[in-house]
Description:
By secondary structure, the protein is mainly α. It has five helices and no strands.
Amino acid sequence: MRTATGDFGRELRLAAAELRTLRALHGDPTLAQIAARAPRGQHLSASGISAALRGHSLPSRDYYLTLVRVLLAYDTNKIASLQHPDLPQRSFSFRTSCAVSAGQA
């Protein structure tokens, strides 16, 4: 697999580091546990989660936000609402990664 470089690679690694921090702060669930917590109709796979956590690929916006919502509230046995106070910050990280990606296309 080719490693992302430049600004896009840096932003992708930063987004992945944020996801890993969220995971650690909320109980360090396994990939299977994270995938199982996804809301009905929003599929998360262990391989997709792993790729996002390692910064190997930029998932779709919906996938990324679903993953963030699961991780933000994992230790409460719920999924974070779309109104969760930390969600806009995480969404900004995703938009930044996308913008940098588009600039390098």
